[in-house]
Description:
The protein is an alpha+beta fold. It contains 4 helices and 9 strands, in the order ββαββαββααβββ. The strands form 3 sheets. Strands 7-5-6-9-8 form a 5-stranded antiparallel beta sheet. Strands 1-2 form a two-stranded antiparallel ribbon. It has a two-stranded antiparallel ribbon with strand order 3-4. A hairpin with a 2-residue loop joins β3 (44-49) and β4. α1 (14-35) runs antiparallel to α2 (60-78) and α1 (14-35) runs parallel beside α4 (124-140). It is globular and about 50 Å long.
Amino acid sequence: MSVQAQLTKGKITLKGSARxxxxxxxxxxxxxxxxxxxxxxxxxxxxxxxxxDIWVSNDQQVTQYLDKIMASVEExxxxxxxxxxxxxxxxxxxxxxxxxxxxxxxxxxxEVAAGxxxxxxxxxxxxxxxxxxxxxxxxASVSFLPIIEEKCTFxxxxxxxxxxxxxxxxxDSDPLHIKNAEQVRLRSFSTDAHRVEAMVAYRRDPDLC
Length: 209
């Protein structure tokens, strides 16, 4: 669904915003998995989104896993019951978390209630440019993140309200924090209903400490 389809009288609705943010999470996770080499390049294919070429997984297990998670994420976003999504990259052998990509979600209405002036409806062009900037940072992350030399897997953590209806197949998890981590804050984007701020934490090279 295009950004334009989410517009109602010039303003993005809460439901439309939930769809936009969910799509961003889906493509963003795929882009990170590709850029960080979590799976072989032949397990990805390129698609056009946000005016960019984005690599997405063609592995059935990965896509099914993400589809199931994103179905709940979109529902919780529309119900204002989610505040954070995390992609943790973990060593297959040691299970240690090597990278932690965090996306904080805040309601724009909460920002206004906190004393900020209401902003005019965001244009499709402005929204796309903000999202493009984040994807370009993800692609550029190879320039500052340590090279991942071991085989890895990943986990998705979703921070939802206690009254959110959680699928029975989901389990509680520890936060998978990284000890003595370095952190880099990335760009943010906002719709008329949600604001998403991104950052990545990674394991500091012990030889450089």
